[in-house]
Design a protein that fits this description.
By secondary structure, this protein is α+β, with helices and mostly antiparallel strands. It contains 3 helices and 7 strands, in the order βααββββββα. Helices cover 23% and strands 38% of the residues. The chain has a 7-stranded antiparallel sheet with strand order 1-7-6-5-4-3-2. A hairpin with a 5-residue loop joins strand 3 and strand 4.
C-alpha cells in the first residue's frame, strides 16, 4: 500500500479559541462544510458521524486525539468510497498562533494515489475538497460570511 498524504496550511485572522470552536461545533461546521452536520462528543475513542442535509451519514470516523486549542485528529471514512483500504484514513488539524493569526495545518494521512483523481464535478478528490472547505472556514471566521461556491 502506498502511504500518500495531503497537507494544506492556511492562515486565519482569528484566535485559537475561535478556530477550535469552529472545528468542533456542529453549528459552525454546518456553515462552512456545505450543510454537513457533525455528531460526536469529541472524546477520544468516540465515533464521529458526518450527516448531509437529507439526514444521511456520508462519512464516519473515530476520535484519536483531542488537545483543545492545539490538535484534533480522527479517522475518516467516506462511506461511498469503494476503494479497498488496509485501514481508514486519518485527518488532523493543528493550530498554532503566529502574531495576530492562527496557522491551521491540515493533514490527511493514509491516502491512496486514486484519492487525488478529480471527478467531473471538480469537488471530489481531497486536493479539491479540503481547500474549498478551509477557504470557506477562513472566510467565515474573518468576515462572518462563507464563500459562494456552487
Amino acid at each position: 500500500m502506498t502511504n500518500t498524504k495531503f497537507v494544506y496550511e492556511i492562515y486565519i485572522a482569528t484566535t485559537q479559541e475561535k478556530l477550535w470552536e469552529a472545528l468542533t461545533s456542529s453549528d459552525m461546521i454546518k456553515k462552512y462544510w456545505f450543510d454537513l452536520q457533525v455528531n460526536t462528543d469529541w472524546q477520544v475513542g468516540s465515533i464521529v458521524s458526518f450527516i448531509d442535509k437529507n439526514g444521511k451519514i456520508t462519512d464516519k470516523g473515530k476520535i484519536l486525539i483531542n488537545e483543545p486549542y492545539h490538535l484534533l485528529s480522527y479517522t475518516f471514512q467516506w462511506l461511498e468510497d469503494k476503494t479497498i483500504r488496509e485501514r481508514p484514513t486519518k485527518v488532523s488539524f493543528e493550530l498554532k498562533t503566529i502574531n495576530s493569526t492562527v496557522k491551521l495545518s491540515l493533514k490527511h494521512l493514509d491516502l491512496l494515489p486514486t484519492d487525488f483523481v478529480e471527478e467531473n464535478d471538480g469537488f471530489k478528490g481531497y486536493n479539491n475538497g479540503w481547500p474549498m472547505i478551509l477557504s470557506n472556514l477562513k472566510s467565515l471566521l474573518e468576515t462572518g460570511e462563507t464563500l459562494i461556491i456552487e
